[in-house]
Amino acid sequence: MTHLDHSSPDSARTIHSRGHPIRWWPCILILLAEVVGLAWIWRFSDTSRQEQNIRTTVTSAVIFALWLVWLLFFSRARWRVRFEVFGAIVGALLLAGALVRIRGVTGDLLPVLEWRWQPAKKASLPLNQPVVPEGPSPTLADNARQTGADYPQFLGPQRNATVNGLILARDWKAEPPKQLWQQPIGAAWSGFSIVANQAITQEQRGERELVVCYDLLSGRLLWSHEDDARYHTTIAGEGPRATPTIAGNRVYTLGATGILNCLALETGQPVWSKDIIRDNQARTNDWGMSGSPLIADDLVIVNPGGPANRSLVAYDKENGHFVWGGGNDAAGYSSPCLVTLADVPQIVIFNASAIAAHDPKSGKVLWDYPWPKGHPHVAVPIVLPNDRLLVSSAYGTGSELIHVVKDSEGKFTASRVWKSIRLKAKFANVVFRDGYLYGLDDGTMVCLDATDGTLKWKEGRYGHGQVILVSNLLLVMAESGDVILLEPLPQENRELTRFPGLRGKTWNPPALAGQYLIVRNDQQAACYILPTAKK
């Protein structure tokens, strides 16, 4: 009996069928197709990063499937080798599925993975008592006398992501922000609203949707209100989206499934509640209801997106009685804002297929401007001088500057001044300063000339975070959880300083009440005192 000499060239034949060498050329063509496809997606296609990631995933899946077909049916390898390789691949995939799970996606639609043995959030999340720094801490009342420190609603006092009258120090290494507290928090993409020492947000804890009030300086729980409601998808995440609105001695909140609450500010006791989805024959958005309530005079205004003149609706803020409805467009993910254009107060809302303006007294649609559908509309339109409105959305759409005019007969028209693909706001709202626009274009900071939309610069990858214009500086809450201070200049992106505010994916808008900055994501919240410039 002779034995096979494994050192001889003939030993290579053991990996393929007898008499037929492995057919490599289809495998090489498949790999070349992948290289060409990925090069086209990332180098030559003019689309958003989200779409590029989706196309990359689809392309890779198709290439992998073709490779398996080649291995099993066209490679000419010995059947034992084919089945062993195929079994190893299936085993690796099953093992990966047993070890990790998807906890959501990033702003670029990449999966966020975690180990399966990591504990999920419990229905009764423990609220740890934070460590208060030694020595006397400044009180909010003292700070408010200097700066007018309330941050009572989504995007701040004027709902435009702008805070005036506060001059921040430019070097946080020389004078670091002081952490007052940091602790776990229930899942949500809501932000905080702050009045006096009360900081209020929304959270999900198990099957209960909560409105929670914390003490600003200590993080201590003051009160909470609960509803039987839960919104959750793997991609969109869990919990409410909208930020509370504080007006007088009341708090107004909108949950992810459409529960509109009016609560007592001091105690959290319910005053009245409405289901705006049921009341207005609307449907819950795919990513949850996200419009933060707007208070205009004696009305609370929300956008259920219902038919039959119930796209935007107003309730009496004292008793919850229905007052008016207007428009027929489905709801987007933006929030209503009260602005003045062509010398006329109006409520502007970014809907599913258009930007619309409503009469604050009657709800009548004054004008609308169509916008590409098929993707979420999130960023709040902002008013620029001379009756202009800047609108922006992501997924390859970009920005447009709209001019609103009222003729002698009282008819409004909205027309385009310019359009640019250079600023595609996904989550973060755009800010305006000294004739220039600053915002995150698919996660990268850009500056546009507001006159004609030309790009001045694009630099600084901060992900899909949030921004606040603080007097002459730009405060950026990066998707990574870092807090960054920029000097907004048309010549360059000048990053001044930064510090790690949180850990993990952070989409929530920050809140800045005087020197007090509260940041949060779907797992934790923290409060910092930011140093101010020396006079």
What is the domain tally? 4
* Lateral arrangement of strands in the main beta sheet: 3-31-32-33-34
The largest sheet, given as strand count, sense and whether it forms a barrel, is:
5 strands, mixed
CATH architecture of the largest domain: Beta Barrel
Mean pLDDT: 89
The N- to C-terminal Cα distance equals: 97 Å
Number of helical segments with 4 or more residues: 5
Mind telling me the CATH class of the largest domain? Answer: Mainly Beta
Q: Kindly identify the CATH topology of the largest domain.
A: Lipocalin
Strand content: 35-45%
pLDDT < 50 stretches? 6-13, 126-138, 140-147
The percent range for helix content is 10-25%
Provide the gyration radius in Å.
27 Å
Number of strands: 37
Describe this structure in words.
The chain starts with 24 loop residues before the first helix and ends in a 6-residue tail after the last strand. The chain is mainly beta. The chain has 5 helices and 37 strands. Helix 1 (25-44) runs antiparallel to helix 2 (49-74). It has 4 domains: 15-99; 150-188 and 428-506 and 508-535, Lipocalin, CATH 2.40.128; 200-331, Beta Barrel (Lipocalin); 338-352 and 366-422, no CATH class. Strands 3-31-32-33-34 form a 5-stranded mixed beta sheet, with no helix packed on it. It is 15% helix and 37% strand.
Which terms would index this structure?
Lipocalin; 535 residues; 15% helix; globular; 4 domains; mainly beta; four-stranded antiparallel sheet
Brief overview, please?
This protein is mainly beta and 535 residues long.
